[in-house]
Each structure stands twice: as structure tokens, then as C-alpha cells.
Design brief:
A 6-stranded parallel β-sheet has the order 7-6-5-9-8-10, with helices on one face. Helix 7 runs parallel beside helix 8 and helix 7 runs parallel beside helix 11. It is elongated. It is of the alpha/beta class. The protein starts with a helix and ends with a helix. The longest helix is centred in the last third of the chain and has 15 residues. Helices cover about 35% and strands about 20% of the residues. Strand 2, helix 4 and strand 3 form a beta-alpha-beta unit. The protein contains 11 helices and 10 strands.
Amino acid sequence: MLSKAKIKLIRSLEQKKYRYQNRLFLVEGDKNVREMLGSSLYVRCILAKAAWIEELPGHLISNQVEVIAVEEKELSQISFLKTPNQAVALVEIPTHEIVFTDIVSGLSLFLDRVQDPGNLGTIIRIADWFGIQHVICGEGCADPYNPKTVQSTMGALTRVKVYVSNVLFFEQLKNSFPDFPIYGTFLDGNNIYKESLNEKAVIIMGNESKGISKDIGFYVNKRILIPSYPAGEDTSESLNVATAAAIVCSEFRRKFSY
């Protein structure tokens, strides 16, 4: 049976300040919990139905993981989903330090005020799909460990390193690697399908409604555009930021896949 203190702790993780006070975030669902158990992230506790625990391969559970069997009613009390799944896990928030030699060794994403948790989680999942291992969340971004963000990543947090930074990221990058390519999407940018892209670069994706801010845009040295089709015809005003991120990442990878 779950204690009131444990329930209170878990429910508090819905709020950012308590996630960071406790250095914990909640992961829900069979696949997501299994991904966490098989990763380098530290799973502190699993709460699941007894049948789920019995079917879990023994090698996924270390002696350091607290395992608690719970009933359907108890899962409903601690779940942030409308329909609770079979298992949840309490996972420690990792501390990733930005190493610029790693950043410049491939593609990275910098997110400028991406405020919707679902968009953020989807972009992290997109980064995982395209083999992008570093995602930097600038000021004004949703919290990477928000329950909606975590759910949207579908386990990608186990493979993608997510950092929280600000404009100083670009100052430090510029000081160490002054000519490193920094791409940003703008309405007056060059057609991405006609542009010679760099295999190693930082790609900036901007806010859902306002795009890339002036402060961050200052550091862009390569402006690109995802053109609408057909040219000159009236279309939607803009693309969803996660959709745009998928198109941009796909084009960068396509250019260097052969």
C-alpha cells in the first residue's frame, strides 16, 4: 500500500519547483519505464501492477531500485494521465554539462522559447530519430521534465542529452569556435532545399508564434527557409515548430546520407 507521503511526493512532481527540489521526474507507461530501466539514467523507484513487475526481466532491475506493487486505484492517484498505464517510475533528473567539443562534432538543436511541453517533447523525439544527441533549451522554453514533455519524448530522454542554457551558450561557442555554422529559420532565409548545408552545425528553432528572438537571432550566420508550395500561393501562415524541426533535420541528414 502506498503511503500518503509517497503519494504527496509523486503528485508534487507535476510542478516544476518540486521536480527540481527533489531532483526527480515522473515517467509513465510500459515502454517508457522499460526504456528508463535500460538506460544510464538513475531510476529510484518503480510503482506498477504486480503482474507487470512479474513479467519484467530481472536484469532491468538493480538492487538500488525500489519496486512497489500497486493496485489500479493507487495508480490512478499518482498518474498524470487520464487513463493510467501499468507502471510509473521516479527518475533522477540528470545533470549534463555542455562540452563544446561535443557540440561541434555533429548536429545540435537550440530551442528558443519553445513553450509548449508537447512540442518540446516531440522535438526531442525527432532529434533522437535523426541521431542528434544534444538539445539545448534556451530561456523561456518549457521544462524538459514536465510530465507532458516526458510523455511526448517516448523514451528519447534516455539517448538525447538535454541542456538548459541561455544566450551565453552562443557567446561561449563563438569564443571557442568563431566560424562554426549556426542556422536559423526565417521567412527571408535561403531555400533550405537549394542551400549547401553543413554536416556539423547548431540549428535554432524559434518560438511557436514569434519565431527566433532578436537576441538569439544575432548569432545566426546562416539563414534558411522552408518554402511553401506552390510558390506565390496563399498558404498557412506558419508551420508547427515540431513539424518544422522534423523537416529541417530530415533535410540536413538527407544531404549527407549518400
